[in-house]
């Protein structure tokens, strides 16, 4: 393959890409997904009731926890970029008309790829796990409304800065454009294990594979535009659209079959 797309760096570059990528992803989940999300909910407790009668968290508490989780992602990425002076990894600018075209094109690509994957999964008869957030929202639809701005403002930017901005660009430096996209997308898919934990193994594997494949679209768009805003907007709107649809179905007594099969990630 043309060296423009595959170009293996030296051992130190490859080792740095693997070590730093795994380290920053683990740090993001520990700081954002555990420390800050937990602290955020605890700080909320003196002001509102954070527990439901069954012992679960209220929609507001869940929303606050998720918000702090992805604020943590962003803080970890910024801390990494500052510590290692790697600001050049992140291409960012005010979107141009060309960028907006890629937003539309990337979103449509996700729709088409999602439809193809849905048909394949149905045809071969494999299970697919459900994102745990969807299950929580089905029990308390109010949560879906909170998830719309959270995904637009925090989830899209947080995950894209982490997986496309840092991980993909480190692996691109080590192996080239195509391996960088594929490796980052694979790690992106694997990271979604936390959203499916406790479900059937085969269903989890299918879900992680779908997330990884859809992640390739976001990685490709980032390389084509060199603007992290583009995949962040696509990602945020993709999930926001799905949670808006989930809210409508849940609040209008419609069967889940009324929803087109879409995979939030």
Short description:
This protein has 265 residues and is mainly α. 72% of the residues lie in helices and 0% in strands.
- Give a count of the beta strands, DSSP E runs of length 2 or more: 0
User: Roughly how many Å is the radius of gyration?
Assistant: 19 Å
Order of secondary-structure elements: HHHHHHHH
Which spans have pLDDT < 50 for at least 5 consecutive residues? none
Helical content class:
over 70%
Task: Measure the end-to-end span.
Answer: 31 Å
Shape: globular
**Biggest sheet character:** none
Structural class assignment = mainly alpha
Strand percentage, roughly?
under 5%
| Tally of distinct domains | 1
Mean pLDDT: 92
Number of helices: 8
Q: Keywords, please?
A:
265 residues, mainly alpha, transmembrane
Write the layout of secondary structure elements.
Blueprint: H1 11-44, H2 59-83, H3 97-124, H4 132-139, H5 142-175, H6 177-191, H7 201-225, H8 229-251
Explain what the structure shows:
This protein has helices spanning 11-44, 59-83, 97-124, 132-139, 142-175, 177-191, 201-225, 229-251. With 265 residues, the chain is mainly alpha-helical. The chain has one domain. Helix 2 packs parallel to helix 5 (142-175), helix 3 (97-124) packs across helix 8 (229-251) and helix 5 (142-175) packs antiparallel against helix 8 (229-251). It comes from Halapricum hydrolyticum. One of its GO terms (molecular function) is metallopeptidase activity. Residues 143-241 form the CAAX prenyl protease 2/Lysostaphin resistance protein A-like domain. The chain crosses the membrane at residues 21-48, 60-82, 102-124, 144-163, 175-195, 201-222.
């Amino acid at each position: 393959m043309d060296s423009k797309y595959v170009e293996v760096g030296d051992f130190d570059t490859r080792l740095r890409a693997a070590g730093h990528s795994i380290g920053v992803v683990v740090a993001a989940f520990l700081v954002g997904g555990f420390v800050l999300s937990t602290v955020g909910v605890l700080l909320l407790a003196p002001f509102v009731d954070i527990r439901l009668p069954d012992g679960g968290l209220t929609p507001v508490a869940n929303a606050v926890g998720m918000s702090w989780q992805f604020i943590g992602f962003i803080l970890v990425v910024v801390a990494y970029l500052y510590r290692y002076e790697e600001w050049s990894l992140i291409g960012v600018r005010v979107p141009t008309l060309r960028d907006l075209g890629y937003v539309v094109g990337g979103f449509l690509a996700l729709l088409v790829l999602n439809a193809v994957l849905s048909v394949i999964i149905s045809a071969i008869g494999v299970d697919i796990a459900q994102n745990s957030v969807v299950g929580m929202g089905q029990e308390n639809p109010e949560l879906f409304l909170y998830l719309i701005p959270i995904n637009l403002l925090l989830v899209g930017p947080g995950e894209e800065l982490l997986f496309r901005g840092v991980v993909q660009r480190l692996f691109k430096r080590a192996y080239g454009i195509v391996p960088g996209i594929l490796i980052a997308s694979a790690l992106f898919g694997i990271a979604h294990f936390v959203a499916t934990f406790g479900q059937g193994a085969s269903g989890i594997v299918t879900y992680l594979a779908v997330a990884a494949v859809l992640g390739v679209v976001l990685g490709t768009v980032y390389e084509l535009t060199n603007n992290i805003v583009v995949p962040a907007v696509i990602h945020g709107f993709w999930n926001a659209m799905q949670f808006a649809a989930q809210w409508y179905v849940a609040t209008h007594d419609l069967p889940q079959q009324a929803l087109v099969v879409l995979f939030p990630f």
